[in-house]
Automatic annotation (TrEMBL), chains A, B:
<keyword id="KW-0233">DNA recombination</keyword>
<comment type="function">
    <text>The RuvA-RuvB-RuvC complex processes Holliday junction (HJ) DNA during genetic recombination and DNA repair. Endonuclease that resolves HJ intermediates. Cleaves cruciform DNA by making single-stranded nicks across the HJ at symmetrical positions within the homologous arms, yielding a 5'-phosphate and a 3'-hydroxyl group; requires a central core of homology in the junction. The consensus cleavage sequence is 5'-(A/T)TT(C/G)-3'. Cleavage occurs on the 3'-side of the TT dinucleotide at the point of strand exchange.</text>
</comment>
<feature type="binding site">
    <location>
        <position position="68"/>
    </location>
    <ligand>
        <name>Mg(2+) 2</name>
    </ligand>
</feature>
<dbReference type="InterPro" id="IPR012337">
    <property type="entry name" value="RNaseH-like_sf"/>
</dbReference>
<dbReference type="InterPro" id="IPR020563">
    <property type="entry name" value="X-over_junc_endoDNase_Mg_BS"/>
</dbReference>
<keyword id="KW-0378">Hydrolase</keyword>
<keyword id="KW-0255">Endonuclease</keyword>
<dbReference type="GO" id="GO:0006281">
    <property type="term" value="P:DNA repair"/>
</dbReference>
<dbReference type="GO" id="GO:0005737">
    <property type="term" value="C:cytoplasm"/>
</dbReference>
<feature type="binding site">
    <location>
        <position position="141"/>
    </location>
    <ligand>
        <name>Mg(2+) 1</name>
    </ligand>
</feature>
<dbReference type="InterPro" id="IPR002176">
    <property type="entry name" value="X-over_junc_endoDNase_RuvC"/>
</dbReference>
<keyword id="KW-0227">DNA damage</keyword>
<dbReference type="GO" id="GO:0048476">
    <property type="term" value="C:Holliday junction resolvase complex"/>
</dbReference>
<dbReference type="GO" id="GO:0003677">
    <property type="term" value="F:DNA binding"/>
</dbReference>
<feature type="binding site">
    <location>
        <position position="7"/>
    </location>
    <ligand>
        <name>Mg(2+) 1</name>
    </ligand>
</feature>
<dbReference type="GO" id="GO:0008821">
    <property type="term" value="F:crossover junction DNA endonuclease activity"/>
</dbReference>
<keyword id="KW-0460">Magnesium</keyword>
Length: 176, 176
């Protein structure tokens, strides 16, 4: 399965596409970042993020999308923008009928490193190793997006197929 | 000028269209609420909100859109959903090239009632009076959306035209 991981953010929105399945080698399909200028109007920044995500969906045709779940624990201004960007990501995927899953930062860290408390460097190192890259993707948002995609393949793939089936059956009993 | 006010929310997203200009009577064009079921997947709820807003933009063709600025001061779970819904609203408007403005709850209350600390009932009463309605629009989200539109006509109309001109000139020196 091919998964687009999205690490939402207003200034830098990380995007990473990974192909693979449980128990088989993973491969990097694409990785990058959509950047928007801090001095642009908020609505324009969100439109630019939407256009960037749409372009990645068009180009890479993922089977599923994994988005980092946002928590309101840090800087309030940053968190609002991150939440808005994550909403754009969720809608872009769901509009196309793609299964979408949210994974918490701890879930992602645990999936790729074995520890929910791994730091950025550890996550970057594991992404590099798991995808057999010669260097760690930069910036960290790009590496995080790949980690999200890997987490989804290993952890969420089966669940998202169940969710999609349930959604299609109209039960609505899917994870938010 | 015709303004669509949007009070963003996942469970209830208030929508209100008001026509008028500074110093002239205001008139109600339309008011309503997009509701999404709490047990539906988050991405589906956001898509439903987007579809609802798009339908209102199609039907009422506003000259500008005013969205309530979200703060992370209350319940964290609610605020994340509200921020995501506000991102959807901002993008829906900006994608069409419509000027979009954000107004804080205090600005809206002050605009319609003279006090930034007015309660829901006061705001509802003033909206009813200013639009010469026979009863207060329900639920409160619908009345709030109308108050946002009125606030924008009285307070933000000139600013948003300046912003649009600046944005067109590519200076980027506009309010977020």
């Amino acid at each position: 399965m091919r998964v687009l991981g999205i690490d939402p953010g207003l200034t830098r929105c990380g995007l990473g596409v990974v192909e693979g399945s449980v128990g088989r080698p993973l491969s990097l399909v694409g990785v990058g970042v959509v950047r928007t200028p801090a001095d642009a109007p908020l609505a324009q920044r969100l439109v630019a993020i939407e256009q960037g995500i749409e372009a990645w969906l068009d180009e890479h045709r993922p089977d599923a999308v994994a988005v980092e779940r946002v928590f309101s624990q840090h800087n309030v201004r940053t968190v609002m923008g991150t939440a808005q960007a994550s909403g754009i990501a969720l809608v872009a995927a769901a509009r196309r009928g793609l299964p979408v899953a949210l994974h918490t930062p701890s879930e992602v860290k645990a999936a790729v490193s074995g520890s929910g408390r791994a730091d950025k460097a550890q996550v970057g190192a594991m992404v590099t190793r798991l995808l057999r890259l010669t260097e760690t993707p930069k910036p960290a948002d790009a590496a995080d997006a790949l980690a999200l995609a890997i987490c989804h393949i290993w952890r969420g793939g089966a669940q998202s197929r169940i969710d999609a089936a349930l959604a299609a059956a109209g039960t609505g009993r899917t994870r938010p």
